[in-house]
Amino acid sequence: MTRSSSRQCLDCGMSVTFALDDWSEESPGITCPKCDADLFAQTDGSCLTVDIAHQGETISDAVDKMTQVLARARAGYYGSVRLIVGGGRIHDEIAAHLYFLQQQGRIISCQEAGGNPGAILVRIRK
To answer: Is residue 52 helix, strand or coil?
Structure first.
């Protein structure tokens, strides 16, 4: 059985149903049949903020949380993600993973959030 989902186009308002097998984070390729907008490139400009380092996480736990948060943000309409990572080893590992994702083109950019070295702002859409 094929699983499906729907997404509303932020440009024209049309609701589009698609098979989840047709969508991947790397190359969404789902366009609105009414206005041809790329549905997964659209953002409402919001920022998802999640603390991934202050509930006793190991480095591996924090990386897994980051991966889940980025997937959740891509599935939604978020334009960016603010990761609270602290200033220790988790910060360094997350920063390295984000740099790798940026080099792969899977995120647009990552930088210290608002002068706070314990938070990283990740832009996922324009």
So the answer is: coil
